[in-house]
Write a structure and sequence with these properties.
Order of helices and strands: EEHEHHEHEHEEEEHEHEHEEH
Number of strands: 13
Helix content: 25-40%
Distance between the termini: 30 Å
Length: about 300
């Protein structure tokens, strides 16, 4: 999304994060950044790089890869060098705490890692016979699900630190023996190592962004803390916003992208940061003018 507007002698552009990978920004310079610079902007907003981590996280580490921090830093510095080359001021935002989004947080709140409930000794005996050679045992009652391992061809029992993704096919748990006779594919899970990779990448990217904001003297939006606050829950204009799936108002039904209200709330964080940095008085938007998830 490239937004270009001219108001008198003011031209502003914004490059929004989700549709664009920072790793592709240099190859897109002739189009995205080229179009932006053609507007001769005096002000810009830049929020980019989320997908450089999200593709890996959203696939359970089974697809894509995280862009290296050195590559990310090089691309961001190149973008900012270009955007500020004509003396433009601007605002940049860091990478949000994406694992707090419902895509990563909801399903594990509904389906526990030990949600394989065995109610008969025949079930226990059959599974012990199938997995006993791997050192996996079962008992009556709750048991950890059987899942594919990220680093081994052999299945394992699920751990409390594993995270179910929103894409988990719960019908297959109920009807097709996923998690017992059939290990749950790893693409529906983030394990502890993968979660650490995601969090480490976010922290590294965000250090780069904080440094660049200082280097280029730009307004800085701490989107990471904003989403962390949403996880705890906030009230703005009488509207409760949190990261609950469907009912939390902030996130859409895909569990990743923001609702209209969520986007308006983020926009206000940009506006406040811009006003603080540049002593401007841009008005914030009213959240009451925007929708969240429409529940029938």
């Amino acid at each position: 999304h490239l937004l270009a507007n001219g108001y008198g002698d003011f031209a502003g552009i914004g490059i929004y994060a989700n549709p664009y990978y920072a790793r592709f920004a240099t190859s897109a310079t002739s189009s995205v950044i080229g179009d932006a610079m053609a507007q001769q902007p005096t002000f810009f907003t830049l929020w980019i790089g989320n997908n450089d981590i999200l593709g890996y996280a959203a696939s359970g580490g089974a697809a894509d890869s995280i862009t290296g921090v050195q590559t990310y830093a090089f691309v961001m510095n190149t973008l900012l060098t270009t955007l500020t080359s004509g003396g433009a001021k601007g605002a940049i935002a860091n990478i949000p705490d994406m694992l707090s989004a419902p895509y990563f947080s909801f399903m594990s709140s509904e389906v526990p890692y030990n949600g394989l409930v065995l109610t008969s000794q025949a079930q226990v005996d059959a599974l012990n016979a199938a997995y006993g050679a791997l050192g996996i045992t079962f008992a009556l009652g709750q048991n950890p699900f059987i899942v594919q391992d990220a680093t081994s061809p052999l299945p394992r029992q699920m751990k409390p630190t594993d995270i179910f993704l929103l894409t988990l096919p719960t019908d297959s748990l109920l009807c097709y023996q996923y998690g017992s006779a059939i290990p749950i594919p790893h693409k529906y899970i983030l394990d502890e190592t993968e979660t650490a990779k995601v969090n480490d990448a976010i922290a590294a990217y965000n250090q780069v962004l904080a440094d660049l904001a200082g280097q280029y003297n730009l307004a800085f939006v701490d989107a990471y803390s904003v989403v962390r606050d949403l996880k705890d829950g906030i009230v703005s204009e009488g509207i409760t916003l949190n990261t609950d799936f469907v009912t939390g108002n902030a996130f859409s039904l895909d569990g990743i992208h923001l609702t209209q209200i969520g986007n308006a709330y983020i926009a206000n964080q940009f506006i406040r940061s811009i006003n603080s940095k540049y002593n401007s008085n841009l008005p914030v938007v009213s959240l009451t003018n925007y929708q969240s998830v429409i529940i029938p």
